Amino acid sequence: MQRALILSALALLSALATDTHAAAAQEAAVGAGYQVQPGDVLTVTVWKETDLTGDLLVRPDFGLSFPLVGELDARGKTVDQLRAEIAERKEAEANLIDARRQAEAASAAKSDFLAKISHEIRNPLNAIIGFSEVMMQERFGPVGNERYRQYLKDIHASGRHVMSLADDLLDLSKIEAGKLELAFASVDANSVIRECVSLMQPQAARERVIMRVSLHDRLPRVMVDERSLKQIMLNLMSNAVKFNEPGGQVIVSTAVDAAGQAVIRVRDTGVGMNENEVGLALTPFSQVGKGAAKGGAGLGLPLTKALVEANKAEFSIKSRREQGTLIEIAFPNIQAAQ
Fold first, then answer.
1. Where would I find the H helices in 145-225?
2. Mean predicted lDDT score pLDDT of the chain
3. Closest C-alpha to 188, from 267, 266, 264
């Protein structure tokens, strides 16, 4: 009973934690039905949240003798114990803040390192790609040996591949650092999709994969960075073709959901993934199952998801082993947002 009354007094006085004057304490206590008499008071240490603020003087009129501060019964806690608990909590909070700052600093350093490496790689790659193109076109005379021509094609293709990886690294580091520059505009997503499908048709034909398109004829325009949308679609369709089987299909479609959002779907009939593999596929530099044999650095899907989220859209993926994968991108309704 005594402990309950003390805790009640503490709860009452916590609202006045910034005022330690006895007069204010007496006024608050009287207003709450307590009586305070000079020379016959109880010193109560109060706190607000995690900060000890000082002592207030009160005496309830219940006719009971309270134990003094620092002498609570065995079921309660003394003020010294409470002070120690608060100090521990404040120390733990400070440690968490420090750990978060260190993690953020490490992430920023990693992003900066990736950006610098990507930039340094691009300069020599441009020379390799450029000179190999000049030699392939034989602008300054014939190469001569047919085998050299094939080597030049391999050099050029390899250079373009490494350049693509460098670009992905640079974009991913910019997104993580919050420095990716986006030019948001009202875009006809169907038009962008048609353009990307045309670009992907030769790759699909080489892999003997059928590409199908089903576009909503009244799809709302989306607020997005057009360059990002093209990169997103090319990445998704490239993956859908790469991880498919000869005779498989890639279906690219658009729709409007119940909330009026424009939705883009890319479905394939490829190898698919289980739940654990989906999580791994969304981790940068990770390869899943047959993905390692297919090549690549494991940046396509993580970068695509990051680009989608940077454009304020929603990314979702569903996949089942040997049944294929479905990826959906939902863009906010422009009119609802306005």
1. 146-176, 189-206
2. 75
3. 264
